[in-house]
Amino acid sequence: GMEKAVERLSGLQKFPDNIRNICVLAHVDHGKTTLSDGLIAHNGFISQKLAGKLRFMDFLDDEQRRGITMKSAAISLLYTPKCAVGGDEAQPEPLLINLIDSPGHVDFCSEVSTAARLSDGGLVVVDVVEGICVQTHAVLRQAWEERLQVCLVFNKLDRLIVEMGYTPTEAYERMRNLLNEINGVMSAFVSEKFISQADTLLATSAEGGALDHDERDDGLPTDDIDKGDDEGDDDIESDVVTDAEHSVDVFSVERGNVAFACAADGWAFRTDAFAQMYASKLGCSCTVLRRGLWGDWFYSPKTRKIVGRKAAGGKLKPLFVQCVLDPIWKLYKVAEAERHGYPPEGGKDLAAMAASLKVDVAEKDLRSADRKTALEAVMKAWLPLSPAILEMVAHRLPSPTGSSKRRVHRLMPAPTLKQTLAADDAAALAASRKAVSRCDASEGSVTTAFISKMLAVPASAVHGKSTGGAAQSAAGGASVFLGFGRVYSGALREGDVVYVINGAYDPSEPDDGSCEEIVVEELYLMMGQGMFRVKEVPAGNILAVGGLDRHVLKSATLSSSKMCAPFGNMMFQVAPIVKVAVEPESVADMPALVEGLRLLNRSDAFVEVGLMETGEHVIAAAGEVHLERCIADLRERFAKIDLKVSPPLVSFREGVSTTGSATATTSNGTLTIKATAAPLPSFFPRVIEDSADSLKQILLSARQKAGDAADTLVPEIMGKLNKAREAVAIDGDGSEDVIEKTLSSAWSLGPKHVGPNMMSVGKMLDGERGPVIAPLGNPSVGEHLKLPVKTCENKAEKQNGIIDFSDANVVKTIEGNALTGFQMACERGPLCEEPLFGVTVQLEVYSKVDAEAGGDGEVGEAQYGPFSGQVASAAREAIRKAVLKAGPRLVEAMYLSVISTTSEALGGTYSVLGRRRAKVISESIREGTGVFIIHSYLPVAESFGFADELRQCSSGASNAQLMLSHWEHLDIDPFFKPKTEEEREEFGEDGYVGPNMARQLVDATRRRKGLKVEETIVKDATKQRTLSRKA
């Protein structure tokens, strides 16, 4: 049977208009998996009769099933839409729906990114009782970043009835508020990103994509499936095009992209299902009723018309409550009554109600002793889950052809070109991009595919393997690595020669090693737990590619042409900051560990594996849960050995609190560098970190190419900076021009040229206190960011110094190496060799004046190595000393922790937060429930074991979600010594009465890195007289 299904599938793949690639996104425990399972049960590859008995996901025999540890990455469903009502047209064509599952825990956001990248649309699932949670926010953001079109599913409606005991009207109010809240979140993204939106708009209007909106602005769903001629009348984009006045909400019930469901009980509906049921009863047209079934519309029985709030006069229930919720509530209440054995209100029992709803339910289900089963049977028959959801997917989510135009900017950002391209190469580059934007599967077009992650699949699940590479590498039932991805244009066929292009590839330098040629060995379709071999996969489809394990590390672009821009990197919501060192229990297992780490690194898009200078192997993960999973994977799947795992290593940064300067001289004594370090305005480093990718494009690519990218990216960065400044601008007047002031003299950012520290243009002085001769460096960052830059005029004519500052080569040496020194100093600060954060540095250089040292320069070279290196190390030394003078502070990563807890457990929760130096930001109670939500910032260093301790202290009532928020200065001076009389009185002679937190963290980090730590060492243990002598 499976072979037939696979054939049928590959037949369907050739029509991209009939494909929907969707992912299911939600907060943890909001019902994603239940929903996905419900959709799979309906799958068109299994006859409806067997659907209950034949579990599609378990078609492998038992022992194989036990070997499977991973959820399938993608499942293909076949959906045949219902005939249009009243139309006598031919049967509509079946759709191929690829469902990509994604986990809901914050730590696994990388999996969510993978799923979002490969989809064109998404279903966001929200639990009606819990509402918007941390991860809901995060996945909405993700979908928006990847330019997905989304539908909303309100899940767990039964909780409102059974647990919360809401009346239908209260339930409607709750859902209406929630919908507004979610639309609020979405519109916040739109307004924040308005600038980068502009370019997507230009693209759609240029290609004639934007339709005349006036004709179609009734906002009603079209009954046909969007034909892919960009009829997206509810793209977020095109909403922006139409006037700002009718900025339409992203999710609206009447436009049909919101569904209501209870996945566990197997039912779901959109309002149009009810519109069809009631239209004839109420004597009005389906379309009118469809608009009336949400919002403040009431049915007035006197006039038999649908009226607004004024005419209703407050006595009637809204239509949605009356027509939709009341019947559902009645069914649940009847079942409840029957379970307890008292007569239901209104005297009807379930069977009678089922009959009046005209649904046929098997007799034995209705008679079932468990009334819950009977209720489920009725609900499933009346409002079945998967047709409702799949119909929404078919009508409301775009096909690959419909969506690629609007996603191409996100998928293939303009590459940074170091050289100028020849005309025909430039044309080829544009053509490959155009093919992606059209999802062009025609014969002659360029083939491009993106591999978003490497999947480790048990060899037993791969069917029809060639007796070639993969089979041998999978000897002994091990895992085979397949690249999981999607074809974006052309078609991939077995035996094709393609280029594997990694993210750093620059089409103007095709031979720099980031592009290699391979032959496509094996292509697979994913069906449930199995992979089935196919010959070719056309554009718009999801696939798995075998034989890439030697070529692709985590993600890569495949293309038939070298002139193809690499796809944009994946957007991750968090950065891996929790690290542990691992080593094998027995030294003999070292090679196995190294191999295991290699496989782990490949299988998880997000984990980072590295080797410290100390020779330790380090794994970096997103958070505790993620780390646990990585280590378990390593132990059980990849290395299969016993491991020793170190306590977590936490990354810090180092910052400064005031201004300080220090000098350093080159070893040959000719050049002295004075560095001044000061803190950047607080909002700066954060924005710079956020926009690192855009800054790379602006600052690090060739001038002529940067022009185009810069035009859109610069306003975006400046906009972000201004927004951030407004958010913190308490000190009214001085803060207006701070951004321009700071950036217009910026010479370089660091570390890695795009980091959160800044070096401003320095000065070359004539002698120590002498006048300025020339500026040191040029305000290149300022220029790139299109700011008016200030340069100082050359002041002094005559020079007394040994070094000739008017010689261009000398100046170039000094400038280049001062920059190198700055980058080096930023990589490792003086406190504990961690990167600097939010420091701005200015250098002044001058040379000695005394003549007798004149010959020293020549001697110096031989003795101390080349002069250039001396300048670099002197600059680094000066900056490090200056940082120590400028009130150094430790900067630590903070999690935003969102805790939900009950009133009884509040005390315990707060005590845990207090012990872990958390700062509580807000506490609120979720309306209608007894649940308290506490938002706080928790230092990452204190977060280990936080979730467990929280559960213990609140006896299981509290649970926390942590996500990385920002870096924050720890406001304690690590070198605090009391100086004034008052301080001495308060803190005693030796500093803090308690331990100095910052100092402890610095020392712990230094100890871990093997740097020296000042400690008093007990010389003679016997001489300690700590106990008072008893007389």
UniProtKB/TrEMBL annotation:
Its main location: cytoplasm. The keyword Protein biosynthesis does not apply. Residues 220-237 have a biased composition (Acidic residues). GO terms for biological process: cytosolic ribosome assembly. The keyword Acyltransferase does not apply. GO terms for cellular component: cytosol; ribonucleoprotein complex. GO terms for molecular function: GTP binding; GTPase activity; ribosome binding. Residues 210-237 are annotated as: Disordered. Keywords: Cytoplasm, GTP-binding, Hydrolase, Nucleotide-binding, Ribosome biogenesis. Residues 17-253 form the Tr-type G domain. Residues 210-219 have a biased composition (Basic and acidic residues). SUPFAM superfamilies: EF-G C-terminal domain-like, P-loop containing nucleoside triphosphate hydrolases, Ribosomal protein S5 domain 2-like, Translation proteins. It is found in: Cytoplasm. Signal peptide: none annotated. It comes from the Eukaryota. It catalyses: GTP + H2O = GDP + phosphate + H(+). This is Ribosome assembly protein 1.
